[in-house]
Amino acid sequence: MTIRHTFLAAFAIAAMTTSSVFGQIDVTWGGGDGNFTDANWVDGDSNPVTPAVGDNIIIPSGTVTLNTDQTGGVGDYGELRVAAGTLDVTTGGRVSFAGNILLGTEAGQTATLIMQGDSVFSGSSFRWASAAGSFADVVIRDTASFSTINTQDIIGFSSALGSGTWTTEGSGVTLQSDDDIWIADDDVWIANITDATTYSTAFADDAFGFVGNGSVVVNVSGFAQSTGQTWRLIESGGETTQGPIANGFLPANFTVNGLDPGLGMRIFSEEVSDTLGFLDVEIVNVLNLQVDTSTGEATIENPAAGALDLDIDGYIITSDSGSLVAGNFNGLADDGQAGWVPGLARGGDSTTDTEPDGDVDGADFLELQRTDPSQIPTWQVEYQGAAGQGANQLTEANFDSSTVVGTASTFSLGDIFDTAGTQDLAFQFTTTDGQVLGGTVEYVGGGLSAGQVPEPTTLAMAALAAFGLAAGRRRS
């Protein structure tokens, strides 16, 4: 933990233990579910009380719905402390706090803030999961507005304390921080994109970035998807490369759900100037591996709306559970495509373990093909021939030419999926312009449960980040 984070943690703990920091008194919700205007508030002596200007609002449990304007007739409250309950600010709700906004002030408990409808929420300094082992859940949707002043660590700031999720949904949300936005440690920021052209960009007046294991989940739904669709997730007035954003990529713990077969997502970040930076995501064209769960047949295709022809010269299909049937593998060579050679068997110690991870495998071949083709003969020898194709990995590569996979193209690889196996296939391919891309895997047919697998998108991002390829281009 940095000195800054230690100070913030100490500040939050001190704030929780002070009976009346900003306001006249601490006003506590009596439990259960009800409306903010209900006569269910008590003071420190358990006497009934109505919240007034400057009072600290404390919600230890239950759900409090706020659907009235608490700003015009009341003014600013002091602090907000939600220990294990929920504050649901919905249509018509307006509330403002002059003090800290503290979610997750009790160890081992979950605190929730929901912003929906046309509600407005503002405050001074936002802190969440401020007690060790606590969890905070923030959801902002519809046309709700959330703004804070002097907000550092709007997402989270220390794994030594709690963790949580932050969800923004739709294109009408306003999320404004007059300081930093951080995605820190074990916290998760969930971006629900529901419109083809617009999304609720989060604005940070200062910097945004990542600390520790902070991660992002992008869920795409509700509109026709096509390549080139782009959304701005965060815009800042300062630095954009805090934490492990490198070469335009997010950390490997980045997940995309809901994309159509043949579509992937890339992420790029740029600091345009001292006063403008951004983090964007864009849908891109990738190949799809369609798997028939009844027959086991696997087919490479390029089915996405707006897809472009992809010229490929290598690919890998893997299964951690061993659900591949190597004996049924035909490959592109059996589809009449010239120059294709089946993947080679894993050998012993190697000089061509490029990652290095202790194994010589298809990933090493793809990297050598891009960076040092002269080493491919050595890699072939170390792989000891084609006998090593197996239940965990099937590969094929083209040393002399390539194959164009167009939107009307389909290439069967044979019945390579074990119909009684686990649906955990991952598909990765290389293009002739030097990119290593993760494809999608789509299960169809009547065997087991069909559906598209989202994990290859995460794999693609990890691979792209590792290789630092041009897919993460910058633009201004």
Molecular structure report:
By secondary structure, this protein is mostly beta strands. It folds into 2 domains: 3-223, no CATH class; 288-472. The chain has helices at residues 3-16, 362-371, 376-383, 455-467; strands at 26-29, 34-35, 41-42, 56-59, 63-66, 80-82, 86-89, 94-96, 101-103, 110-115, 120-123, 126-128, 135-140, 145-148, 163-169, 174-177, 181-184, 188-193, 202-204, 208-211, 215-220, 230-236, 254-257, 263-273, 276-285, 288-292, 298-301, 310-319, 340-342, 393-398, 403-405, 410-412, 425-431, 436-438, 440-444, 451-453. The strands form 6 sheets. It has a 9-stranded parallel β-sheet. Strands 8-11-14-16-19-22-25-24 form an 8-stranded mixed β-sheet. A 6-stranded mixed β-sheet has the order 3-1-4-6-9-12, with no helix packed on it. A hairpin with a 6-residue loop joins strand 35 and strand 36 (451-453).
Give structural attributes:
476 residues, mainly beta, 2 domains, eight-stranded mixed beta sheet, 9% helix, disordered C terminus
Tell me the radius of gyration: 26 Å
Domain count: the total is 2
Q: Which secondary-structure class do the elements indicate?
A: mainly beta
Beta strand count: 36
Give the strand order, joined by hyphens, for the main sheet.
2-5-7-10-13-15-18-21-23
How far is the N terminus from the C terminus? Answer: 34 Å
Shape field = elongated
Q: Total helix count?
A: 4
Quick recap of the structure?
With 476 residues, the chain is mainly β. Helices cover 9% and strands 36% of the residues. The two termini are 34 Å apart.
